[in-house]
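TEACHING EXERCISE
Course module: macromolecular assemblies
Task: Read the component lines below, then compare them to the predicted structure of the full complex.
Student: A.B.
Group: 4
Components provided:
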Amino acid sequence: MAYLGKKLITLIMTLFLVSAAAFLAFQIIPGDVVTSILGTEATPEREEQLREELGFNDPPVMRYLHWVGGLLRGDLGTSYRYSKNMNERMPVSELIGDKLPVTLWLAALSTVLIIVISLPLGVLWAKSRSHAVDAALGVVTQTAMAVPSFFLGILVTYCFGVVLKLFTPGKYVSYRQSFSGFLGYLIFPALSIAIPKIAMTARFLRNSMLTELGADYVRTACGKGCSQRRVMYGHVLRNALMPVVTFLGMIISEIVAGSIVIEQVFGLPGIGRLLISSISNRDFPVVEILILYITSAVILVYFLVDILYRVIDPRISEK
Amino acid sequence: MPAHVTKKRNKYLTAGLIMTGTAVLLGILAFFWTPWSTTAMSASERFAAPSFRHLFGTDNFGRDIFSRVMKGMGTSVMISALVVLLSASVGIFLGALTGYFGGVLDEIVMRVTDAVNGFPSILLALVVISVLGTGRQNLILSLGIVFSPSYIRIVRSEYLRLRDADYIKRARLMGVGKGRILFVHILPNILPVFWVSVMIGLNNAILAESGMSYLGIGVQPPDASLGNMLSDAQGYLQTAPWYALAPGLAIVWIVLGFSLFSEGIRRLGE
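Instructor-supplied answer key:
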């Protein structure tokens, strides 16, 4: 319990530091934002008015406090680029609102695919006595890890979209329209994110199991007459899964990174795509929020994995 | 050493050497000569399929894809080499200081690298790029910053391991200067570990560079890079699949080559 409390305090501290870093990074940007919004032909009065409106005349610390205060009240600020109507700029929360589910579902679906495919694959691989299977899986996984996710996305588009016609590339189905159609389209980008990670996880689990198979307790279990099955699943797999859980937790941040790129490949309107376009448009309020959002999500996942790990293996908390 | 182990080790090394060798040589050659111009367009030869005339076919502007892949490999390898040079130099410098001396600097640097390591590297690179702006120098700088922490950690742990070794203690007793101990006595002994991480770093840098260029915030057109070729090619998957396959397979070729090569070096060290 004391441990949990300590972890929670670190978590809050980290989130605070991340927010400060995300905000400060965009204060040292060269070039005047006001000029880039209004163009070079605006009158000095109009520029001054906008500067005042955006709070650029306040000191940075005040602006940070104002920003964080807004965040805590649910006010994420307004975009520089997108307008709601003639005289109102688009609130960032509205901009992100309907894009967030797309990215979350994509990440969730990829994670499910990774777990469902890599675990049986890793176990079968570790059990296989055939040298040919071992070598073949070695080559296949090594190659899968060398393919960058965006090229994999293009290959998936070509194989499943152009040749097999299982989906129409670029014809994204909104989750508001049809949820099953949405998932049906999402499965292909999710697969593109998952394949290299499946290769990594399967390799990792296989190596972990082979290490465990050489341990003393395996010989003891065999010696006291446990069935092959029981030794494999009851003893070896249980212990071999421990490091895999940590590994999966570490992969989460790569799944997030993968989805930023894959959304671009498949034309998914998620927050990754919004991030890239906001960076190109120099729409900093949106970039700040998205960076904060993504990093917080990653930090939270690490936190949860850490807790989960202690629940699965109580020995860790005793150490 | 049993015979089959030697044979296996050679296999990794030779395969890796052949793959990276061809990629690097073709890439360097592309700065002086390519079979066709990398920018000249030809309306009559749009989307020509692969043939002896155009090995990998031509693209939507009738440009020769093989020549552009050569140029792209050169650009990718050069940018990645500069990224690794930058981050490895930072890594050796800070890693040596923090590992050998410890103290407050060590504490600060370690907390920062902890924080950086936890995040997806592409996200950090995106932040740096959006602060600095796009362009080739900024791409190298941002990836250099993003990759530094892993080198700092590796170098630091090696210095930590060696700083109390007997020969270092003896050198200290003999009155050898600190700079000399750091860079003449210890540095050569960490090189085997260091080279493997340089290889892995090159790999990651190539993946990151082509990813950023694919997203349109790395190497800008009309300069050929494997990443921006792929993003152009994506619109023509139906009519000209070879256009996407060529740069994509080139990336896989380089990355696979580097990882086989580093595996070979690692086994050589064992």
